[in-house]
Amino acid sequence: MKMNGIMPLTTLDRAAKKMVGAVQEYALLSGRALGNLFRRPLYGADIITQADTIGVGSIPIVILTGFFTGGVLALQTSASLSQFGAAGMTGQLVSFSMIKELGPVLTSLMVSGRNASGMASELGSMMVTEQIDAMRALGTDPLKKLVMPRIVATIIMLFFLTIISDVVGISGGGAVAVLMLGQDSSQYFHTAYQALRYADLIQGLVKPIFFGFIIATIGCYYGMSTRGGTQGVGRSTTQAVVAASVFIIATDFIISRFMIGIFGR
Amino acid sequence: MSQSAVAPELQERPPRDPVVVFEHVSIGFEGKQVLQDISFSVRHGETRILLGPAGVGKSVLLKLADGLLRPDEGRIFVFGEEISAMQEKDLYPLRRRIGIVFQESALFDSLTVKDNVAYRLKEERVPEEEIQQRVTEALRFVELEHTLDKFPSELSGGMRRRVAIARAIVSRPDLLLYDSPTGGLDPITSTTIIELVVKQRDVYHTTSLLVTHRLQDAFLLASHRFNKEANQMEPLPEGHSDEQTSFMILNEGRLVFDGSTHDLVHSDDPFLKRYLS
Ligand SMILES: Nc1ncnc2c1ncn2[C@@H]1O[C@H](COP(=O)(O)OP(=O)(O)OP(=O)(O)O)[C@@H](O)[C@H]1O
Ligand SMILES: [Mg+2]
Predict the structure, then answer these.
(1) Which pairs count as long-range contacts for B129-133, CB under 8 Å and 24+ apart, including other chains?
(2) Which among A254, B51, B256, B269 has the fewest CB atoms less than 10 Å away?
(3) Would you say A123 and A132 are in contact if contact means Cβ atoms under 8 Å apart?
(4) For B222-277, what is each residue's pLDDT tens digit?
(5) Neighboring chain A residues of B102 at a CB cutoff of 8 Å
(6) Which residues contact A156 (CB under 8 A, 6 or more apart)?
(7) Does the CB atom of residue B214 touch ligand 1 within 6 A?
(8) For strand B207-211 and strand B175-179, is the pairing parallel, antiparallel, or unpaired?
(9) Is A201 helix (H, G, I), strand (E, B) or coil?
(10) How far apart are CA A183 and CA A203, in angstroms?
(11) Do residues B37 and B158 share a domain?
């Protein structure tokens, strides 16, 4: 590439403008889709179809990742804790980590890999084959018919998937602690349960609501801004997963900081 | 919507009122100017054929007329409303009166032929039996009633184009926009499609704007009429052309011709002569 001093600046300038434009468009899409939430028609059937593909389809991977995450947490924490003679606290640490952090974050990352990409490729192909334009031409608002049901379905489903992941993760940790590390099962589950406060549960259940919103809006945004044929669809799909994942982890940090500020734990 | 409130007003309208008006419309993409200072109008009951070389902006012009794109400059009126100044949400009721056939058909690939054609009626919550009847009627119009439960991917290009026409006419629109309905098709299928357009024009007198880059199709349209008794298209007497059909030609972003079939074939303009030969 040829450089002549001024060019890097102008490309930087253009990149910055493009970025600001993208953020603006993303905010507009999210805002409009939410604004449609209570306006008729409601597209209940579309919400149910989406809930089915997002929720039911994700259950196996959520169970698998939840189980092994809980298991590995039990392995690692009990190894560290036994250095202080506190291996009996394994249950507490596993349940804390699962409910506050790993349950919501890992579930969201899994669902983002499956569904942010799915939404971006589905809406992207509709975009490049003019089906979105056809929908607008036939008098339907794609934000209402396509985006809004995906947002609602993802938020609801991610909430329940996170609960499943928490439960399976704590059980997986228990299985490892009891069967592999020879700990007492009632002690494990007792500490796992006893140490929990409402603040922890709230923190763990507020996160999937934000993450679900991020997954659906990012997936739809990249889908709806697809240009350039099938290659463009492939590009949007990967970009959607990457952006959603980074955004989820960054938001997780912000929510945690905020919640700890409120509840002090 | 207030369909019934609109209807009486429609009948009172003087028959030659413009349905589509473009006033000094310009549009460009990423710094590249596509259309410049385009002005024309389509009157009630007229069929206007838009010709021009590939990539000149014919599809863009048609999308502008449906409010799917917005002009950078100029104003666009459809049914007397300035669509270039309306918000997207206010355009939806207006678009329900417009049927559009996209260049690549743009059928919903996850829906069957029947659901594609029924799409708009379902969105408008038309009763099920009426949907059934109107969908069958529209598909019979394009002679595809046997494909009801097929998916678009199972159809040939020409069949997809006919389904797209059925989807556009099923709501009995007051304005039809056809984007290259014969593009990429063999001459026989093209003639079948042009026959459908002629039928729509002569049987229902729907105002329409038709894009094509095939001159032979354009002249076929201008020189034929639909015979209802025989249920087929027939040529007009030698030297005659359909009075409601006229031409527009785009070149390098500008409208270089706007007039009747007669004016077109007798034009002295060097570009037009080269284009027509
Ligand atoms: N959404 C868009 N974004 C950027 N450029 C566009 C867009 N739509 C059209 N263009 C550009 O506008 C120009 C005109 O395109 P258009 O599709 O209207 O051509 P056309 O006259 O319909 O051609 P054809 O006869 O091949 O269908 C092209 O150069 C195209 O690249
Ligand atoms: Mg075109």
Answers:
(1) none
(2) A254
(3) yes
(4) 999 998 888 888 998 888 888 889 999 999 999 999 998 888 888 888 888 888 87
(5) 130, 133-134, 137
(6) A51, A55, A212
(7) no
(8) parallel
(9) helix
(10) 29
(11) no
In this structure, are B22 and B149 located in the same domain?
Answer: no
SS3 sequence, B104-168?
CECCCCCCCHHHHHHHHHHHCCCCHHHHHHHHHHHHHHCCCHHHCCCCHHHCCHHHHHHHHHHHH
Work out whether strand B224-227 and strand B18-29 pair parallel, antiparallel, or are unpaired. Answer: unpaired
Helix, strand, coil % over all residues of chain A, rounded to 5: 85, 0, 15
A42: closest chain B residue by CA:
B123
Does residue B58 have a pLDDT over 70?
Answer: yes
What range defines the domain where residue B135 resides? 110-172
Per-residue pLDDT reduced to its tens digit, B110-159: 999 999 999 999 988 899 999 999 999 999 888 888 888 999 999 998 89
Check: CB of residue A113 under 8 Å from CB of residue A241. yes
Kindly list the distances between the CA atom of residue B136 and the CA atoms of A46, A149, B107, B114, in Å, as whole numbers in the listed order: 25, 30, 17, 8
For residue A9, the model assigns a pLDDT of 65
Of B126, B141, B172, the one marking the end of a domain is B172
Tell me whether residue B103 is in a domain: no
Mutation target to probe the A interface, by most A beta carbons within 10 A, among B30, B83, B97, B119 is B119
Phi then psi dihedrals of residue B224, to 5 deg: -125, 160
Q: Which of A136, A168, A182 is CA-nearest to residue A68?
A: A168
What CATH number has the domain bearing residue B226? 3.40.50.300
User: What per-residue confidence (pLDDT) applies to B15?
Assistant: 53
Q: Whose CA is nearest to atom 7 of ligand 1?
A: B29
- Pick from A174, A169, A172: which is nearest to A188 by CA? A174
Please give the pLDDT value at position A42: 77
Looking at the fold, whether B60 and B118 belong to one and the same domain comes out as: no
ipTM of the complex: 0.88
Last residue of a domain, one of B172, B189, B217: B172
What was the pLDDT predicted at B9? 44
Q: Is the CB of B108 less than 8 angstroms away from the CB of A133? A: no
Q: Per the structure, how many domains does chain B have?
A: 2
Rounded CA-CA distance B185/B176 in Å is 21
C-alpha closest to that of A211 among A137, A110, A127 = A110
pLDDT means per 10 residues in chain A (265 residues)?
A: 54 84 89 78 88 92 95 92 86 92 95 95 95 94 92 96 96 94 90 88 94 96 92 94 96 94 84
CB contact under 8 A, B106 and A134: yes
**Residue matched to tokens 């009891």:** A178
The length of chain A, given as a count of residues: 265
Q: What does the alpha-carbon distance between residue B198 and residue A172 come to, in Å, rounded to a whole number? A: 70
Residues B85, B199 share a domain: yes
3-state secondary structure of B229: coil
Q: Are residues B244 and B187 in the same domain?
A: yes
The average confidence (pLDDT) of chain A is 90
